[in-house]
Amino acid sequence: MNESKCPVPREQQPTNEFIELSKSKIFSWPKTKKSLILILIKFWVGTFVLFLVISSGSVYFKTSLLKYFLLSFFSSLSIPLLISIRLYLGWNHIFYRLISEKVEYEESGWYDGQVWEKPLVLKEKESLIASIEVKPILNNIIQIFSIISVLALSGILIFQNNNF
Prior knowledge:
Layout: H1 14-23, H2 33-55, H3 59-63, H4 65-75, H5 78-99, E1 102-106, E2 113-117, H6 120-161
Helix pairs in contact: 1-5, 2-4, 2-5, 4-6, 5-6
């Protein structure tokens, strides 16, 4: 954005927010689906091991080894699920800031919110960034979130029936 015409502080401009989010260590994970999947699997395995240790102290699960492993397996999906939700919320916020026609910003604090309407050239530029850069990231996160959710819900259904 042209500094002389834009009243929005530099760190609150949607394009700059996108660049900062892209440089962020955590929010750069979903840039490729493969890297996000590998990172979430690492978190899942670590959480699985932690949950195995935690539930190993239960007398109830010492009688049923299958329940012990399945409960740890499905409950450990909670951490990748929470991570994917957080990634989605961050990228979705940037997506809507980029495609909106107006930019909401604060000059010095929460109490002096302002709204600035983007010029047509900037709307087109940011809309292009949103559709080419951010939308595929959101699609990756949604697909992975859906897979994790299906696995977690299937675990809930297995434990609801409790026939093993």
